Amino acid sequence: MIEQIDATFGPNNNLLHSTIYGDIKANCRLSGMPDLTLSFTKPSLMGDVSLHRCVRINRYQREKIISFVPPDGSFKLLSYRVNGNTNMPIYVRPTIDYGPNSGRVRVVVGAKNLRKDLPITDVTIIIPLTRKLLSSNLTTNSGRVRVDAKSKVVRWEIGRMPMDKTPMLEGSLSLPADFKSDERPTVRAEFQMKMFCASGLKVDGLAIRGVKYKPFKGVRSLTQAGRFQLRT
User: Fold this and answer.
1) What is the C-alpha separation between 219 and 93, in angstroms, rounded?
2) Using alpha carbons only, what angle is made at residue 196 by residues 127 and 145, rounded to the nearest 5 degrees?
3) Which residue from 112, 42, 50, 114 is spatially nearest to 76, judged by alpha carbons?
4) Domain ranges of the chain
5) How do residues 131-148 score in pLDDT, each as one tens digit?
6) In 3D, which of 34, 45, 39, 55 has the Cα closest to residue 3?
7) Among 42, 63, 82, 107, which is disulfide-ready with 169 (CB 3.0 to 4.6 Å)?
8) Under CATH, what is the fold of the domain 2-86+196-231?
9) Hey, do 2-86+196-231 and 90-191 end up sharing a CATH topology, with the first three levels equal?
10) Torsion sign, CA atoms 145, 151, 153, 158
11) Residue-wise pLDDT tens for the chain (232 aa)?
C-alpha cells in the first residue's frame, strides 16, 4: 500500500487542503487458479477507485470487497483517492523575513508521533529564497544545508528524523540596501514513512481459495510526500 500526500498549509500552519493518492500493488507467485478476497477496514474512505481488470466489479460495488483471480507477477490491483482525512506524520514551521540589507530564516521540523518502530526517513526541506539574495549564513542542528548560488534555493537534507532533538535551521540573509519585496516563499517538504498509511486505511483480511497449499501472505505500506507545501 503506497500513499502519497498532497497538502497545502497556510502561514499560520493551518491546513488549507489535503488529498491522499493511494495505490495497492500486488506481487503474486501462486500456482494453480487461486481465488482471492481482499477486505479493508473503513473501505468507505476510498474514493475515485480504479480497479485492475481482474477484479469482480459487481461484488466490489455491492460489498466494497476486492474479489479477483490474480495474474502472475507484479501488478497494480487498484488506485484510490482520499480527501480531507489525513494523519500528517510531520509538521514544518517556516519563518522567512526580508528587509533592507538583511533577512532572517528559521524553520523547525518535527514528527507528529515519534516512534522508534515507525521512523520518518529521507526528510528534505526545500526553501526558495529571493533571487536578489547576496549571501546567506545558515546553520542547523541536524543534517546538512546546501544553497544553490544560481537558483537561490536552499536544500536542507535531514535524512532520518532524530529521536533526541527537534531539527532546526536558522540564520541570516544578506540583501541589497534598497531591497523591497512582498515575496512570500512557498517551502516544500519531502519525506517517507514505512509501515504507515496516512489515510487510516488498513487491510482487514486476505482469503485464498482454490489451492491445496498454504501460501505466504504479507502486507507492507509506505507513505510519502507528494506536493507538500507550506506558505510563509
Assistant:
1) 33
2) 20
3) 50
4) 2-86+196-231, 90-191
5) 999 999 999 999 999 999
6) 45
7) 107
8) Immunoglobulin-like (2.60.40)
9) yes
10) negative
11) 999 999 999 998 999 999 999 999 999 999 989 999 999 999 999 999 999 999 999 999 999 999 999 999 999 999 999 998 788 999 999 999 999 999 999 999 999 877 788 999 999 999 999 999 999 999 999 999 999 999 999 999 999 999 899 999 999 999 999 988 888 999 999 999 999 999 999 999 999 999 999 999 999 999 999 999 999 9
Which three three-digit cell numbers place residue 85? Answer: 482525512
- Amino acid identity of 146? R
What's the one-letter identity of residue 36?
L
